[in-house]
Amino acid sequence: MNNTTAAPxxxxxxxxxxxxxxxxxxxxxxxxxxxxxxxxKADRLVAEGAQSAPTVDAALKAxxxxxxxxxxxxxxxxxxxxxxxxxxxxxxxxxTSGDSAGAREAARWADRIGARYLxxxxxxxxxxxxxxxxxxxxxxxxxxxxxHRSTLEALGTVTHLGADHGLAALYDVAGLAMMWSVLxxxxxGTALLRTAGVDAATYAPFAQRIATGVAEWLPxxxxxxxxxxxxxxVSALETDARAMEHLIEESxxxxxxxxLPELFKAMADRAIAAGHGGEQYPVLIEEFGKPRExx
Length: 295
Ligand code: NAP
Description:
Elements: E1 9-12, H1 16-27, E2 32-35, H2 43-47, E3 51-52, H3 56-61, E4 65-68, H4 73-80, E5 91-94, H5 100-112, E6 116-123, E7 135-139, H6 142-152, E8 157-160, H7 167-194, H8 200-215, H9 218-227, H10 237-253, H11 259-276, H12 285-288
Parallel strand pairs: 1-2, 1-4, 2-3, 4-5, 5-6, 7-8
Antiparallel strand pairs: 6-7
Helix pairs in contact: 7-8, 10-11
NADP nicotinamide-adenine-dinucleotide phosphate (NAP) is lined by residues 13-18, 36-38, 41, 69-72, 75, 78-79, 96-97, 122, 125-126.
């Protein structure tokens, strides 16, 4: 698309991700100014029509919206932290990965220098940027998101999570927790079945059905968590704990690593010891919601 009325945008940071972001803006017809510490990384984008700014100050002056994608927040502060680098009124969209405290701190810093600030998290790899498969989460003032939504949509499926700048980072790590939990559980089952000669490809479709089925429980379980009431409608935690013991015993007997089910069981045992054995599984939120003793 070549839309000469598309809003100008600046991209600061042309690593693997920054190059993909700038490429997607160009493809959507946005006049795109780029800057990178190692200037040569702008060459391909310049050949595609980007303007390469000689300094970060010039890059920021070129557009009212600047998308930043550096290694970490320390790099962002090192680059942009000096007084006067960011023109007042500029909207910064920081897509650098970081934690919620860093995002909130960056928002306070932006406020002090008179810039508008949205934080963001990219839940995608560079090759899918610019397609609907690229999920990009934003948090910060809704009006700032709405003002630049149509430009940001060039990057993928964009979502505004709320005014709290820390939300994008929190959803990012929550998504990672989900991903690694599903993968680790699948690997546990795969290790068990391989002892009987069942290969990973044979088990995978069964595991996929279980994961999808369990995912269906989440909205109902979420209602229990939000209401703080955990009646055992399907199964009591102490019943689940007995099944966990079978999983541990079977793993040990077959010479398979039992650390993961031992962790499930340790958390369930603590909840049972606290008197929650007759309640339903989501009551474990009380264990997840606090640090382990001695941590
Ligand atoms: P990368 O290829 O390593 O690029 C890092 C970028 O940061 C480069 O442009 C680098 O500049 C710049 N940089 C680092 N320190 C700097 C400093 N002190 N001053 C100025 N520039 C500095 O990393 P990436 O894959 O593009 O990732 C960038 C961010 O996106 C990270 O926060 C990452 O977690 C996030 N992300 C990446 C992916 C992915 O699949 N790649 C997915 C989701 C999120 P030079 O070129 O000069 O070194």
